[in-house]
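pasting for ref
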Amino acid sequence: MTRNYSTRAFFRQMPNALLGRYFAGRAVFGEFDFAAMSETRHDELFDAWLALPEVLRNPMDAEFRDIFELSCEKGCHAIVDEAQWHLAQDADPNAANAFTEKLAAMANHFERAMVTYLDHNLFWRGAMHFYHADTLSHWRKRKNLPHNAAQVTAASIKALANSIRTYFHHTEGRGNNCVVEPFRRGDRDYFFAYPEDYSQQSPEWENGQFGIRPHNPAFEVVFVYSQSEGSLDLNFRGSFKAIEPLQAMFAAAILQLPELPPDPKDSRVYDLGPLMQRNFDFTYDLGSGIESVVVKKLRLSSRATRGERISLEADTSQDPQAVYALLDRIQTAMPMAQYSVTQVDLAVSMVVEVDRPPKTVNIHITYPNSCSLKYDEVGLKLRDMLSASGIEPREPADLATPDAATAHAPAPVAAPVE
């Protein structure tokens, strides 16, 4: 059921004593005797409220709306959850229970929310975040993660924020700034990320004047990690394509994983079959900084015999086609049509920093959908190259059928017997 806010109703639902304490803290309405005022009729107070200058009234109205949001059962649970984390650090082992009992003894949720705001403001921000997370829908869950403890350090938080900023700035042209706020709730770690959104112009009122005001809002990404379950819940209201990159950023920065473990539910596969061809051309933009791409290693897996593999690795420093020269020699003795490419190592020469010589970036790709690339600025450019070259993961039904020019090449994607 939707709860609608109005200031008049808020005054009526909040105990007068707490209204008096709130306004006394802001040095307004000192002339009112809140103890003698009716608990259900606040006409005089409301009239005085409307007469306040906007510069005083607007900040308090925003605070009232936040207090109203937490004045419900979900809000109370969020307050208790945040309080328990803070009070667990208290020297008194009974502090958390005492706080919970104090809230339980109050008349209603409005009183509980206002007392928390006034007397236990340390718990307020986390409780607001938890309540907000509880109202979100369309979560994406990823299981099969190792049970690593979340690294909640300044360095890991900064790394996650930088990865999110870089990703959205590169792919969507927004996210120029980003901040990440971590919280602990029971046995779960919450991370609220706020990248900068596109600039907007909104109709607003300011000091009685109506106008269109430009501003830079933030959009939101919420991560909820359970170490005991090895699971990550993600809430992001944007392109579905960003889901796995965001999961990978979290795995790298917070779980310290070299790459995101495969998702058992993910049916997409890398199309590695074309890399069996010596004349395969990688496609990339001239402005990407990429100068050359060399196949250093191929692993071939039998489609008929479980566990049968052939790894081809050669020194490409003198001959970029050395792996294919080795493949040619092997093909004279073995039927390569019975094998699929299930792993490839690439060496990419690219300019990473201006006025610096090119550096070599190695890419390790394994069938069906594992890749060593991160989602930093360099990794995103290289993923663009893989996508433009037709290698990035796609649903099996979307993979292109070989045309006449490649009809005699080994089948590009056929599930190997591992």
